[in-house]
User: Fold this.
Amino acid sequence: MKTLKEYLTESKKVYDFKVKVAGDLPETFQENLKTALDRCKCIKLEKISTTPIQSLPLDFPTMKNCEVHIFEVICEYPITSPEIINEIKSLGLEEHSFRVRGSDEPSETDQVFADLEEVKDVLLTDAQVGDPKIKGKDYFGDDFNRGFLKDLEKSAKQRKKDQDGPTEYKLPKAKQDKAGLKSAMGSK
Assistant:
């Protein structure tokens, strides 16, 4: 049987984030961010990669022609994305030039799955594009549209033919209750 200390060691949770900074970084950005996050026991603050200069970088629609620096941040104590955003703002960066994403945020998980997804086989090959068995006029064009409209007209006529009886439902006349029509005090 495990001791309580072993259970606590196994259940140690870490909080990881990706920090993306567009444009030029201040010289001591990484060191300053590490010291700002020391209150949360920052285990790891590492620059993962830098993207090449892009005309419109992902996650930064207002920035143009800049590179994106991506950092991985792992903390032992609980911290949220807004807290990290406030720490980065206090370092002097404007909010439109950086993004903080938690590992469990939908946009981050979608990106991970997109990277892992393999390219599947192509369903339509070049040989099938010019296949003589498939006639385009059977699926689109003026002749197809005329035939489609004729079929719609036939089905509308068939529906009218299938309807027998009145098309509106009329409520039966309600019986009037004669009690309560005369006053208890008398009437003239």
Remarks:
- The chain is about 30% helix and 15% strand.
